[in-house]
Batch of 2 targets.
Target 1
Amino acid sequence: MPPLPDPNGVFLNVPYDEEFSSLYIAYIVGLCQLGLVPHMASETPGGGRRLDRIFEHIQSCRYSIPDLSRVELSVTPTAVPRFNMALELGMTITWQKLHPSRHDWFVWESEPYRIQRSAGDLNGTDACIHNGTPDGFLRELWSAFWRETMPSVPRMLENYRFVNNNLNAILYKKGTSNPYDRSVFMELCWISKTLADLIRPTGSAARKP
Amino acid sequence: MRKPIHLTAPPPTLEEMEKHFRIPKARKEELQALVDEFKAMLSNRKDAPVNSAEPEKRRKRASAA
């Protein structure tokens, strides 16, 4: 049996594509604002099998956030569905069923009822609908978790915009155009956590939408 | 509607997070400059609620008016 999971650890199971990068930044910033610690498969160095690394993250994090909004046909002459997210969600569900006190998961989608069409067996699961926008994501995140001290959605958006506006500068310094690169991910986590600590509300200011 | 999950474990400190997200000292100093810029922005603005509309939407509304 693996050690107990990090109670603040969240495994982000999201597509690594350019169109998703704004939401990816919102995921990192939003989770850090709630005092959670994002993790991704790409953060682990080494050449191990990707699926093994993903399963290790699922086991070591208390929560998983699989985003199914990009489960769609690829844009190639021989279009095939993108199954990675769904495959990894299956692993997550199995782990949670075996160890319900160790893990919990939330499915994220861009449109209401899309999940019923793409994965009908998930009927009865309340997906978090982010409408494909950072605003929508942060609003849903705010509803999905509750902490005594958490910033308002506008405050979270403010932090998101600041980090997103500085993404190109971070990429330039790292000599990459890939925001999902391991070192970029770590810097985004660091700066998001630092900004979150600056605006963490206390007492009566906490949890105003 | 699913009930929100109540997070009871204290949030990690920056030092705890840094153990995992190792960033070279020189680079951290550069990133700290960005944080200072954010701090200055917070201290300079009036404490009005932040408009959640995207800047693009706001620009469009302003130009339509």
Target 2
Amino acid sequence: MLLSPFLGPAMPGALFCVAAALIEYFFGLGPALTVMLVGLVIADYLFVPPYADFSVFDHSDLMLVVSYPGVTLFIICLIERLRRAQFRAEMFASVSKSRYEMLLRADNKRALRLRTIDETHRLLRHLPHYHDSIILIQALDRKASLRPDADHAAGTAHSLPHTSAPGSRFSAVHPADIARLQNTLSPGSHRLRIRSGDHTYKPVDCVGERFTTHAGDFLVLRIEA
Amino acid sequence: MDQATHILQESGEHAVLMLHGLSSSPLEMRFLARHLNSEGFTAFAPVLDGYSAGSPERDMQAWVDAAVREFDSLAERYARVSVCGLSVGAALALAVVSKRPTAHAVVLLSVTLSYDGWAIPWYRFLLGWAYYTPLRSRWRYREASPFGLRNEALRAKIARAMQRNGISEVGPSTISLPALREASRLAKRVRASLAGITTDCLIIHAIDDETANPRNAHDVAAKIASPFLRTIYLDDSYHMITSDNEREIVASETAAFLRESEAARGIGSGAESLVVSKALARRLRQLAALGS
């Protein structure tokens, strides 16, 4: 009411138009339309002479009712269009982000596969090279070791569980060491008694190496050169 | 079409309970079930009494109870159980995990908490009121083209199946008003329980979803309290993402997420989720920095 002498007759709807545009910018179409309608009523009541009176409808009221909603709706529609375009762009940005992350995960998988292929090649080169000193190759494959019959076979001393395969020097190892190995074979160095004469066993340094291949993990136990 | 039957494909200790969309059938989940099965998961898509097509309609409490019963029976037989849902089934999946926090992970495909996609007419809110009129038992919401499918060849096939049988592999041809009302009651309850859900969560949503606006997915992602949360947006599908153009991506990402969620808890060898790629490691660090 204080401002009405300055604002009133000239541009009664201007401030409400700005208010509606701001609400549209921050909160969207519904609230903006509500603010516009409420603004129309308030502007007509307070800012169009005669003030605080609805009963008179003259030329200035008509100007407000035609111009204010027209301009405001125009601005609101423009902002709404931009808001929708912005939402759409944000959605596309999220799609590209999802795709980039999927790509990175696929790339990681590829790198893992490459690594296992390298390991397999290393194992294949390793086997002929140390052919004469290999004692035992054991599969560390998780699924294979879960098989109940593997545990059963491990209980008997001289036979191997079928996750293991004997190497060329297997028969020369002391039976007690073989039994010990069944349960405690791990990568790293071991000391095993190996037959040197007819009935004499000599402690020899051996080494266990782990290989990760596409077919599973393997541990190769060989006499250290 | 005959009465739909459940899908059960057994393999492995990790079972996935798959909940289909409203008044639909487990057929929706067939492709995903096959893929998960080939990846070593047990996939189970049950027919829920009162929720699936072909059974007399019941209220949403009965839906949740039926789904929780299926969850419990899986939990007795398998070491880990995850829940996966499509559309309203995703809301149902959220209701199940909020009742059973022991669930391993939850996968939300095209989660529908409100029907506000671009194909839903603006006067849809009138349906809520129509429930209180005699229209309740007479009028049925009729599914129309595009049937949630962007793939046009598939859409034509579905349209023929709908005309012939009244149901297709992407859902029923009509949905009754009481079922829609129960779905919105379920959504209301799920919204309230989101902040208490701490199960690992994967959300997949198409940005052009014609039934549920991607805002649904955004809201769930913002409110849910899962420590391991992944959101994936697709742009070449509509609502039925398990049958549409990107179904392979949906299936492979679901399986990968379940494996990673297992590895995060120290189950399995962990070899699958090892981070070798430097770019991925960098990206994960960025995401972690954003999250904290």
